[in-house]
UniProtKB/TrEMBL annotation:
Keyword Transmembrane helix: yes
Taxonomic lineage: Bacteria, Pseudomonadati, Pseudomonadota, Betaproteobacteria, Burkholderiales
Source taxon at top rank: Bacteria
Ranges for domain Phosphatidic acid phosphatase type 2/haloperoxidase: 115-217
Residue ranges of the TM segments: 21-40, 60-80, 92-113, 138-158, 170-187, 193-212
Protein name: Phosphatase PAP2 family protein
Amino acid sequence: MSTPPPLAWRADLRQRFWRYLPLKVVGISGFMWVFFLGYFHTLRHPAYPVFEMPLTALDALLPFQPWGLVAYVSLWLYVGVAPGLLLRLRELIVYGLWAGALCAAGLLIFHFWPTAVPRPDVDVSAYPGFAVLQGVDAAGNACPSLHVATAVFTAIWVERLMRIVGAPMVLRLLNLAWVLAIAWSTVAIRQHVVLDAVAGAALGSAFAALSIRLSPWVGRGQAA
């Protein structure tokens, strides 16, 4: 792969951002809507009794941090970064199919192995925003954390696209910091335990590696 000219990455990122922007916004929003339909259906109709996830020593070391809610909800913006940097309609479709397969795998696990986190050690409903969160993203369907899985899947794809366009290291480090903040927040606000996050990271990494290996052309080249 040839090295892009200095600062050419700016024009490349700008082109990628604006390419099919209305379609990307509508498509990502629709994807989330369909996912939450499946998520809540699975949550309300488990195939077996719900298993409560165990706590680890690391869970005890991570205190409750209500401001972690900001990083947590930022996932719903973050997941749009990778598809937002794709140029071709075919690439968007392929990426969406892989992201859908990741979510479907998670929901399949939730159906046959329903899990939940233990009761939090604090009254999270006493903090602003948490009552809404509990209504939107329940503490069931815990392991693997699809919050972490989709964040890691996105992060690996964003890193790949940043390398392709020759983006500076500061943007790549920002991507790393963002995904780490999201993963940390899932435990810090007591939506998940450490084992959920680890399992989610493994699931997201596996699907990202498989999707890149089987779709190496996605993200390369110029728009048609």
